[in-house]
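Lab meeting minutes (informal)
Scribe: AK
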Amino acid sequence: MSNLIDTAVLTSAYFGPIQYYSKLYRYPNIHLEQHDNYIKQTYRNRCVISGPQGPITLTIPTAKPATNKVEMREVEISDHGNWRHLHWKAIESSYNSTPYYEHYKDYFLPFFEQKYPLLFQFNNELQEIICSLIKIKPNIQYTSTYQFDFDEHTLDLRETIHPKKDHKLHDPNFKIKPYYQVFSEQTGFLPNLSILDLLFHKGPETILYL
Protein backbone atom coordinates (compact mmCIF):
# COMPACT_ATOMS: atom_id res chain seq x y z
CA MET A 1 0.00 0.00 0.00
CA SER A 2 1.32 3.44 -0.88
CA ASN A 3 1.95 5.82 2.02
CA LEU A 4 1.62 8.85 -0.23
CA ILE A 5 0.04 11.78 1.60
CA ASP A 6 -2.83 13.10 -0.50
CA THR A 7 -4.87 15.02 2.10
CA ALA A 8 -4.07 18.00 4.33
CA VAL A 9 -6.18 19.21 7.25
CA LEU A 10 -6.20 22.98 7.69
CA THR A 11 -7.91 25.49 9.92
CA SER A 12 -9.82 28.48 8.63
CA ALA A 13 -7.58 31.50 7.99
CA TYR A 14 -8.02 35.23 7.44
CA PHE A 15 -5.89 36.09 4.38
CA GLY A 16 -3.77 33.06 5.25
CA PRO A 17 0.02 33.10 4.85
CA ILE A 18 1.88 31.85 1.79
CA GLN A 19 2.58 28.62 3.66
CA TYR A 20 -1.17 28.00 3.95
CA TYR A 21 -1.84 28.58 0.25
CA SER A 22 1.07 26.35 -0.71
CA LYS A 23 -0.84 23.50 0.95
CA LEU A 24 -4.07 24.39 -0.86
CA TYR A 25 -2.11 24.15 -4.10
CA ARG A 26 -0.03 21.09 -3.30
CA TYR A 27 -2.47 18.54 -1.86
CA PRO A 28 -5.21 16.89 -3.96
CA ASN A 29 -7.64 16.96 -1.02
CA ILE A 30 -8.13 19.55 1.70
CA HIS A 31 -10.17 19.00 4.84
CA LEU A 32 -11.07 22.38 6.27
CA GLU A 33 -11.68 22.17 9.99
CA GLN A 34 -14.83 23.85 11.24
CA HIS A 35 -15.38 22.00 14.53
CA ASP A 36 -12.16 23.02 16.28
CA ASN A 37 -12.39 25.10 19.43
CA TYR A 38 -11.75 28.71 18.48
CA ILE A 39 -8.31 29.88 19.58
CA LYS A 40 -7.21 33.50 19.60
CA GLN A 41 -3.84 34.75 18.31
CA THR A 42 -3.86 32.37 15.36
CA TYR A 43 -4.38 32.82 11.63
CA ARG A 44 -8.07 32.11 12.18
CA ASN A 45 -8.66 35.82 12.78
CA ARG A 46 -5.35 37.49 11.94
CA CYS A 47 -3.02 38.05 9.04
CA VAL A 48 0.39 39.65 8.67
CA ILE A 49 1.17 42.15 5.92
CA SER A 50 4.25 44.26 5.17
CA GLY A 51 4.76 47.91 6.01
CA PRO A 52 7.64 50.40 5.79
CA GLN A 53 8.58 49.64 9.41
CA GLY A 54 8.21 45.86 9.14
CA PRO A 55 5.39 43.32 9.59
CA ILE A 56 1.90 44.59 10.46
CA THR A 57 -0.59 42.28 12.16
CA LEU A 58 -4.27 42.79 11.38
CA THR A 59 -6.69 41.13 13.79
CA ILE A 60 -10.44 40.71 13.36
CA PRO A 61 -12.21 41.27 16.71
CA THR A 62 -14.61 38.52 17.70
CA ALA A 63 -17.68 38.63 19.92
CA LYS A 64 -17.37 37.21 23.40
CA PRO A 65 -18.93 33.73 23.32
CA ALA A 66 -21.63 32.61 25.72
CA THR A 67 -19.51 29.63 26.81
CA ASN A 68 -15.81 29.07 27.41
CA LYS A 69 -15.51 26.94 24.29
CA VAL A 70 -17.00 27.73 20.91
CA GLU A 71 -16.52 25.96 17.61
CA MET A 72 -14.85 27.92 14.83
CA ARG A 73 -17.93 27.70 12.61
CA GLU A 74 -19.95 29.56 15.27
CA VAL A 75 -17.55 32.43 16.03
CA GLU A 76 -19.16 35.81 15.48
CA ILE A 77 -17.35 38.88 14.19
CA SER A 78 -17.49 41.95 16.40
CA ASP A 79 -17.90 45.49 15.09
CA HIS A 80 -15.55 46.78 17.77
CA GLY A 81 -13.01 49.44 16.85
CA ASN A 82 -14.09 50.16 13.28
CA TRP A 83 -11.78 47.33 12.25
CA ARG A 84 -13.03 47.03 8.64
CA HIS A 85 -12.03 50.60 7.86
CA LEU A 86 -8.69 50.26 9.66
CA HIS A 87 -7.79 46.97 7.98
CA TRP A 88 -8.57 48.27 4.51
CA LYS A 89 -6.61 51.47 5.10
CA ALA A 90 -3.64 49.42 6.28
CA ILE A 91 -3.84 47.18 3.21
CA GLU A 92 -4.18 50.19 0.93
CA SER A 93 -1.25 52.09 2.44
CA SER A 94 0.95 48.98 2.42
CA TYR A 95 0.26 47.85 -1.13
CA ASN A 96 -0.98 50.76 -3.24
CA SER A 97 2.45 51.06 -4.86
CA THR A 98 2.82 47.35 -5.65
CA PRO A 99 2.62 46.19 -9.28
CA TYR A 100 -0.80 44.53 -8.98
CA TYR A 101 -2.70 46.41 -6.27
CA GLU A 102 -4.87 48.33 -8.74
CA HIS A 103 -5.59 45.13 -10.62
CA TYR A 104 -6.90 43.21 -7.60
CA LYS A 105 -8.14 45.74 -5.03
CA ASP A 106 -11.75 45.81 -6.24
CA TYR A 107 -12.10 42.09 -5.54
CA PHE A 108 -11.35 42.66 -1.85
CA LEU A 109 -12.83 46.05 -1.03
CA PRO A 110 -16.45 44.73 -0.80
CA PHE A 111 -15.43 42.49 2.10
CA PHE A 112 -14.65 45.62 4.10
CA GLU A 113 -17.80 47.47 3.11
CA GLN A 114 -20.36 44.95 4.32
CA LYS A 115 -20.86 43.07 7.56
CA TYR A 116 -20.39 39.34 7.82
CA PRO A 117 -21.86 37.79 10.95
CA LEU A 118 -19.58 34.73 11.12
CA LEU A 119 -15.79 34.60 10.87
CA PHE A 120 -15.80 31.19 9.20
CA GLN A 121 -18.06 32.43 6.40
CA PHE A 122 -15.99 35.59 5.96
CA ASN A 123 -12.72 33.64 5.71
CA ASN A 124 -14.18 31.08 3.33
CA GLU A 125 -15.52 33.64 0.89
CA LEU A 126 -12.23 35.52 0.93
CA GLN A 127 -10.40 32.26 0.31
CA GLU A 128 -12.60 31.44 -2.68
CA ILE A 129 -11.82 34.82 -4.25
CA ILE A 130 -8.10 34.42 -3.67
CA CYS A 131 -8.03 30.91 -5.12
CA SER A 132 -9.87 32.11 -8.22
CA LEU A 133 -7.39 34.98 -8.67
CA ILE A 134 -4.42 32.65 -8.23
CA LYS A 135 -6.16 30.15 -10.53
CA ILE A 136 -6.03 27.17 -8.20
CA LYS A 137 -8.98 24.90 -7.53
CA PRO A 138 -8.45 23.06 -4.25
CA ASN A 139 -10.77 20.16 -3.53
CA ILE A 140 -12.06 21.36 -0.16
CA GLN A 141 -14.34 19.38 2.13
CA TYR A 142 -15.56 20.76 5.44
CA THR A 143 -15.13 18.49 8.41
CA SER A 144 -18.27 16.90 9.86
CA THR A 145 -16.75 16.31 13.29
CA TYR A 146 -13.49 16.96 15.09
CA GLN A 147 -10.92 14.21 14.62
CA PHE A 148 -7.84 13.77 16.77
CA ASP A 149 -6.08 11.15 14.67
CA PHE A 150 -5.77 10.53 10.93
CA ASP A 151 -4.48 7.75 8.69
CA GLU A 152 -1.06 7.74 7.04
CA HIS A 153 -2.42 9.45 3.91
CA THR A 154 -3.47 12.57 5.81
CA LEU A 155 -1.30 15.39 7.11
CA ASP A 156 -2.69 17.31 10.09
CA LEU A 157 -1.55 20.93 9.74
CA ARG A 158 -4.15 22.52 12.03
CA GLU A 159 -1.61 23.66 14.60
CA THR A 160 1.46 23.63 12.36
CA ILE A 161 0.65 26.79 10.40
CA HIS A 162 0.70 29.29 13.23
CA PRO A 163 1.93 32.91 13.53
CA LYS A 164 4.01 32.03 16.58
CA LYS A 165 5.65 28.91 15.13
CA ASP A 166 8.77 28.97 12.97
CA HIS A 167 7.87 27.19 9.74
CA LYS A 168 11.51 26.10 9.33
CA LEU A 169 11.19 24.02 12.50
CA HIS A 170 7.58 22.89 12.28
CA ASP A 171 7.14 22.57 8.51
CA PRO A 172 10.55 21.84 6.92
CA ASN A 173 8.89 20.86 3.63
CA PHE A 174 7.84 24.48 3.14
CA LYS A 175 10.60 26.55 1.56
CA ILE A 176 10.48 30.33 1.11
CA LYS A 177 12.27 32.00 -1.77
CA PRO A 178 12.71 35.79 -1.64
CA TYR A 179 10.73 37.88 -4.10
CA TYR A 180 10.55 41.62 -4.67
CA GLN A 181 8.75 43.57 -1.92
CA VAL A 182 8.24 47.34 -2.11
CA PHE A 183 9.65 47.95 1.39
CA SER A 184 12.55 45.49 1.15
CA GLU A 185 15.19 48.25 1.20
CA GLN A 186 13.91 49.36 4.62
CA THR A 187 12.93 46.01 6.12
CA GLY A 188 14.78 43.35 4.21
CA PHE A 189 12.79 40.44 2.80
CA LEU A 190 9.85 39.47 5.04
CA PRO A 191 9.02 35.77 4.61
CA ASN A 192 5.67 33.99 4.78
CA LEU A 193 3.42 37.03 4.96
CA SER A 194 -0.26 36.96 4.01
CA ILE A 195 -1.04 35.66 0.54
CA LEU A 196 -2.04 39.27 -0.21
CA ASP A 197 1.62 40.26 -0.15
CA LEU A 198 2.53 37.69 -2.78
CA LEU A 199 -0.53 38.40 -4.91
CA PHE A 200 -0.05 42.17 -5.00
CA HIS A 201 3.64 41.80 -5.82
CA LYS A 202 3.61 38.84 -8.21
CA GLY A 203 0.13 38.92 -9.76
CA PRO A 204 -0.39 36.07 -12.27
CA GLU A 205 3.01 34.62 -11.30
CA THR A 206 1.71 33.80 -7.81
CA ILE A 207 0.83 30.26 -8.85
CA LEU A 208 4.33 29.73 -10.24
CA TYR A 209 5.79 30.84 -6.91
CA LEU A 210 3.53 28.44 -5.00
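Next up, CB showed the second protein from the same session:
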Amino acid sequence: MEDYLQLVRAAKQGDTEAFAALYGEIYENMYRFALYTLRNTADAEDVVSDAVMDAFASLHTLRSEEAFKSWCFKILANKCRDKLKESYRVTVQEAEEIAEIQTERPKSGLEEAAIVRGLFFELPADERLIIGMHLFCGYKSREIAEILHMNENTVRSKESRGLKKMAGKLKA
Protein backbone atom coordinates (compact mmCIF):
# COMPACT_ATOMS: atom_id res chain seq x y z
CA MET A 1 0.00 0.00 0.00
CA GLU A 2 2.83 2.37 0.82
CA ASP A 3 4.37 1.69 -2.61
CA TYR A 4 1.04 2.60 -4.17
CA LEU A 5 0.88 5.88 -2.25
CA GLN A 6 4.47 6.67 -3.22
CA LEU A 7 3.54 6.14 -6.88
CA VAL A 8 0.61 8.53 -6.51
CA ARG A 9 2.82 11.13 -4.84
CA ALA A 10 5.44 10.79 -7.57
CA ALA A 11 2.79 11.05 -10.28
CA LYS A 12 1.39 14.20 -8.64
CA GLN A 13 4.87 15.69 -8.93
CA GLY A 14 4.94 15.00 -12.68
CA ASP A 15 6.53 11.54 -12.84
CA THR A 16 4.96 10.09 -15.98
CA GLU A 17 6.34 6.60 -15.33
CA ALA A 18 4.66 6.55 -11.92
CA PHE A 19 1.38 7.65 -13.51
CA ALA A 20 1.75 4.96 -16.19
CA ALA A 21 2.24 2.32 -13.50
CA LEU A 22 -0.88 3.49 -11.67
CA TYR A 23 -2.86 3.56 -14.89
CA GLY A 24 -1.66 0.06 -15.76
CA GLU A 25 -3.18 -1.24 -12.54
CA ILE A 26 -6.67 0.08 -13.28
CA TYR A 27 -6.87 0.21 -17.08
CA GLU A 28 -8.58 -3.15 -17.52
CA ASN A 29 -11.35 -2.31 -15.05
CA MET A 30 -11.81 1.17 -16.48
CA TYR A 31 -12.11 -0.27 -19.98
CA ARG A 32 -14.54 -2.97 -18.86
CA PHE A 33 -16.72 -0.36 -17.12
CA ALA A 34 -16.71 1.88 -20.20
CA LEU A 35 -17.35 -0.99 -22.61
CA TYR A 36 -20.33 -2.26 -20.68
CA THR A 37 -21.72 1.22 -20.26
CA LEU A 38 -21.26 2.31 -23.87
CA ARG A 39 -21.47 -1.07 -25.67
CA ASN A 40 -18.97 0.08 -28.28
CA THR A 41 -15.27 -0.72 -28.23
CA ALA A 42 -14.18 2.46 -30.01
CA ASP A 43 -16.25 4.67 -27.70
CA ALA A 44 -14.98 2.77 -24.64
CA GLU A 45 -11.38 3.24 -25.75
CA ASP A 46 -12.02 6.94 -26.41
CA VAL A 47 -13.60 7.68 -23.03
CA VAL A 48 -10.93 5.75 -21.13
CA SER A 49 -8.28 7.67 -23.02
CA ASP A 50 -10.04 10.98 -22.35
CA ALA A 51 -10.49 10.13 -18.68
CA VAL A 52 -6.82 9.23 -18.31
CA MET A 53 -5.73 12.42 -20.07
CA ASP A 54 -7.98 14.50 -17.80
CA ALA A 55 -6.74 12.64 -14.72
CA PHE A 56 -3.13 13.22 -15.68
CA ALA A 57 -3.72 16.89 -16.47
CA SER A 58 -5.51 17.56 -13.19
CA LEU A 59 -3.64 15.15 -10.93
CA HIS A 60 -2.26 18.09 -8.98
CA THR A 61 -5.82 18.75 -7.74
CA LEU A 62 -6.14 15.29 -6.16
CA ARG A 63 -6.45 15.94 -2.43
CA SER A 64 -5.92 12.45 -1.07
CA GLU A 65 -3.49 9.93 -2.54
CA GLU A 66 -5.70 7.10 -1.25
CA ALA A 67 -8.56 8.37 -3.43
CA PHE A 68 -6.72 7.99 -6.75
CA LYS A 69 -8.72 4.97 -8.01
CA SER A 70 -12.12 6.34 -7.03
CA TRP A 71 -11.18 9.73 -8.48
CA CYS A 72 -10.27 8.10 -11.82
CA PHE A 73 -13.52 6.12 -11.86
CA LYS A 74 -15.55 9.25 -11.17
CA ILE A 75 -13.87 10.99 -14.09
CA LEU A 76 -14.57 7.94 -16.26
CA ALA A 77 -18.21 7.72 -15.18
CA ASN A 78 -18.70 11.37 -16.13
CA LYS A 79 -17.03 10.80 -19.50
CA CYS A 80 -19.31 7.82 -20.16
CA ARG A 81 -22.37 9.84 -19.22
CA ASP A 82 -21.31 12.65 -21.56
CA LYS A 83 -20.65 10.17 -24.38
CA LEU A 84 -24.08 8.61 -23.94
CA LYS A 85 -25.73 12.01 -24.04
CA GLU A 86 -23.80 12.80 -27.20
CA SER A 87 -24.30 9.53 -29.05
CA TYR A 88 -27.70 8.27 -27.93
CA ARG A 89 -30.68 10.39 -28.75
CA VAL A 90 -33.08 8.04 -26.99
CA THR A 91 -33.91 9.67 -23.67
CA VAL A 92 -35.54 7.93 -20.76
CA GLN A 93 -38.82 9.60 -21.66
CA GLU A 94 -38.58 8.33 -25.25
CA ALA A 95 -37.74 4.84 -23.98
CA GLU A 96 -40.84 4.93 -21.75
CA GLU A 97 -42.96 6.06 -24.71
CA ILE A 98 -41.60 3.18 -26.79
CA ALA A 99 -42.38 0.77 -23.95
CA GLU A 100 -45.96 2.09 -23.68
CA ILE A 101 -46.53 1.77 -27.42
CA GLN A 102 -45.17 -1.76 -27.50
CA THR A 103 -46.92 -3.25 -24.47
CA GLU A 104 -48.67 -5.80 -26.68
CA ARG A 105 -45.44 -7.38 -27.89
CA PRO A 106 -42.27 -8.35 -26.02
CA LYS A 107 -39.45 -5.83 -26.02
CA SER A 108 -36.40 -6.57 -28.12
CA GLY A 109 -33.03 -6.86 -26.42
CA LEU A 110 -32.05 -3.48 -27.84
CA GLU A 111 -35.16 -1.78 -26.46
CA GLU A 112 -34.64 -3.33 -23.03
CA ALA A 113 -30.97 -2.33 -23.06
CA ALA A 114 -31.90 1.27 -23.86
CA ILE A 115 -34.42 1.34 -21.02
CA VAL A 116 -32.03 -0.24 -18.51
CA ARG A 117 -29.21 2.09 -19.59
CA GLY A 118 -31.52 5.08 -19.15
CA LEU A 119 -32.55 3.90 -15.68
CA PHE A 120 -28.91 3.31 -14.75
CA PHE A 121 -28.01 6.89 -15.63
CA GLU A 122 -30.98 8.25 -13.65
CA LEU A 123 -29.39 6.94 -10.46
CA PRO A 124 -27.38 9.28 -8.24
CA ALA A 125 -23.68 9.28 -9.16
CA ASP A 126 -22.56 7.36 -6.06
CA GLU A 127 -25.05 4.52 -6.61
CA ARG A 128 -24.21 4.41 -10.33
CA LEU A 129 -20.49 4.23 -9.59
CA ILE A 130 -20.88 1.44 -7.02
CA ILE A 131 -23.19 -0.63 -9.23
CA GLY A 132 -20.92 -0.11 -12.22
CA MET A 133 -17.79 -1.11 -10.32
CA HIS A 134 -19.51 -4.23 -9.01
CA LEU A 135 -21.34 -5.42 -12.11
CA PHE A 136 -19.05 -4.25 -14.88
CA CYS A 137 -15.63 -4.50 -13.24
CA GLY A 138 -16.23 -7.38 -10.85
CA TYR A 139 -15.15 -5.57 -7.68
CA LYS A 140 -16.52 -6.98 -4.44
CA SER A 141 -18.16 -4.75 -1.82
CA ARG A 142 -15.03 -4.78 0.33
CA GLU A 143 -12.85 -3.67 -2.59
CA ILE A 144 -15.28 -0.92 -3.60
CA ALA A 145 -15.37 0.26 0.01
CA GLU A 146 -11.57 0.48 0.06
CA ILE A 147 -11.37 2.28 -3.28
CA LEU A 148 -14.13 4.78 -2.46
CA HIS A 149 -13.16 5.13 1.20
CA MET A 150 -16.59 4.09 2.43
CA ASN A 151 -17.93 1.64 4.94
CA GLU A 152 -18.56 -1.77 3.36
CA ASN A 153 -22.16 -1.81 4.66
CA THR A 154 -22.73 1.61 3.08
CA VAL A 155 -21.52 0.26 -0.26
CA ARG A 156 -23.89 -2.72 -0.09
CA SER A 157 -26.76 -0.48 1.01
CA LYS A 158 -26.24 2.02 -1.83
CA GLU A 159 -25.94 -0.79 -4.38
CA SER A 160 -29.10 -2.46 -3.12
CA ARG A 161 -31.00 0.84 -3.07
CA GLY A 162 -29.94 1.66 -6.63
CA LEU A 163 -30.86 -1.77 -7.99
CA LYS A 164 -34.26 -1.60 -6.26
CA LYS A 165 -34.91 1.81 -7.82
CA MET A 166 -34.13 0.44 -11.26
CA ALA A 167 -36.20 -2.70 -10.74
CA GLY A 168 -39.16 -0.66 -9.46
CA LYS A 169 -39.13 1.55 -12.53
CA LEU A 170 -38.78 -1.43 -14.87
CA LYS A 171 -41.87 -3.05 -13.38
CA ALA A 172 -43.89 0.17 -13.47
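CB comment: The chain has a mean pLDDT of 83.
No objections, moving on.
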